[in-house]
Structure formats: structure tokens, C-alpha cells
Specification:
about 375 residues, alpha+beta, 13 helices, about 40% helix, globular
Amino acid sequence: MAGLFFRAPQDATAGVHLELGEGLPSFWFAKLDLVIGDGAALASCWSLKGASGTKPCLYCQNVFLHGLNLHLHDRSGRFVSHVECDMSKLALETDQSVLNSAKMLRDNFGNTSRAQFDKMEKAVGIVHTMRGPLNCDHLLQRLNGGPISVTQMDWMHIYCVNGIFNTECGFLLESLRAAGLQYIDLDRYLQGFKYPKQLQSKGTTGSKTLKGYDGGEVKCSASEALAVYPCIRLMLMTLVPDDVPHDTTLAIVSFHALCGVLDLLQQDKKLGNVDPDTLHGAVERHVTFRIAAYGEDRQQPKVHWSLHLKAGEILISRKQTAFGFLHFGRRLVNAQRKESVWWFVQGPFFLVFQTFSSMKRVFV
């Protein structure tokens, strides 16, 4: 899709001639400013191995899947598991480090054995493709930054699409059942809520999330998850007795911490007034409680990805409007920089273009 905007003769980096109806010629300039998607989409976009490889995080150089136990056998002490919460132990990727890794693969392709080259790809988490985006100077020169600084994971997918909320709900219900609460009773409680008409008409109340539930990950849409999690939080506060086992108490505390994160993300989407450190602190708090409640072996890579949602540091260094892009099909304006942002949809990921210097009017 980027080719629609950056291929001659309509290359936005060189300026696209527009007629605005005022009888004066104008030029529109733009660069690719943001690529948003879930982990699988971004891995496909940048030719990364992603969670299917050994290195599940595109933002970290030294994070490896917990189940591989590489962090236990690394003599350098540099490798860490994807369940590590201490950000100071993470060696973060930069635009240049990713491009250096892509160049290393390009230089060694065809000059080493296939088995050795496969190990190189696994080590850096990149799938080498000669015509891939990391080897395409034409694309890289049209980024407003580099592959890391323009890439953002969608928080909705991290939490609500086969994500942290879905798995944690399953773990929580499993713990509640062990404490004597039956699924059918919890389902009956959720269906007793009366939702606003705008949610009922769209069928996104989530009231039937537990209907027929019999264990495992809770299946629901992202909209249903956001509608039902406050109800589950209230259910925990009203239905669950005080004398539940310690393990169940830990599960409840973890879920309340998860709700706190979702509260902040939705507040930021609507109002844009959440302090970055407050958000990151809430995420770290939840991850810590979740690991304490369910152990390290039950943490999906998305738990690690959530640690990179700190606004203003890693993912959103240039704009406060990033949260909520995926659910508003309109032109967004950054109030701080007075610059226009346009986004376009392609498959599972989104491309955002930032205009520069507004419209440059040329008098001839």
C-alpha cells in the first residue's frame, strides 16, 4: 500500500501536485510515520520470525521465549526470558541495530551453510528476504524514522484478541471453580446485567461470554471484552467470599490489576490525558501479579509486549494520539504539533502517514 503514495510519479516524499479548487497549485509532502498491527501482522510486514521463533519481541535484542530456557544456559548473563519484568535488563532494539542485523544476514546469505544461516536468522529474529522491507532502500528512505520507531503494536490485540484478557479470564475462572464457584452461576450473574442500548443493538455486551463455557481461554470479541470486564470485576467484589484459598486471592488481585490497565488504556483512547509513567506502572504491576498468581510457564508473549506500551518512550515517541487509531476512521490532528495524520487500512495492519510543513503552496 505504501507504493500508492511513494512511487513515481506520485511520490509524496518529493511532493504530490494537488489542485485544491482555489485556482492555485499546491504540493502535499508526507512520509510513512506509523505502522500499527498485531504481532503476527507486524512480523509479516517486516519479515520477522516473531512469536513463532525464539525471539518473540521486535523491540528487544536479548529476550527469548521462556520455554526454551536459553536464559538459564547463557554464560554471558545477557539473555532474559520473555516473562522478565525488569526493564533495565532488556537490551532494546534501535532502528540501526535492526538494519545492522538485516545487513549481516544479507552479507552471509549464500556464503554459509543453510543450517548455519538458519541459526543466524533465529539469533536476530529476522527472516532474510532479498526484496524484503528491511533490504529495500526505497522504502526505508520514506520512513519518518526507522523500522522500530515507526512500528507500534495495537494494545487491543495485545489484551483483547486471543490476548492477555482472554487467557487470564480462563485462569481466573479455573481458580474460582476450584474455590467452589461454578461456571453456570457466574454465567447467570453476567446475564443479569442490563447494558446500554448502543451496546445491545450491536451485540457487543459480552453478557453471553460464559454461556456454555467449559474451561480454557475465554472466547469473545475485543468489543465484548471491553464491555464485560467491568462486570466481571463487580462479580468478584460481590459473589466471591472472603475466605477463598490464597491462590484464588492472588488470581483476583491479578484480574483487578488487569482491569486497572484496561481502564487507563480506554481513558487514554478517549481523553488522551494518561500519564505515560502511570500507564507503564500499571502494566508492570499487573504483569508482576499475574506471574505471582499463575507462574512463569503460563505467560504468553503478549504479556511481554504489554511492557512496551509506555507512551512517549518506545512506541509513541512523537505523538499522544497513537492510542485508539485503530477504531476511528477519520483524520486525526496532533494538538501539540499542529500536524495532520491520516491513516489507511491494509489487511491486518495499518499505515499512518504524517504530513510535513502543512500544504506548501507554490505560486507560478
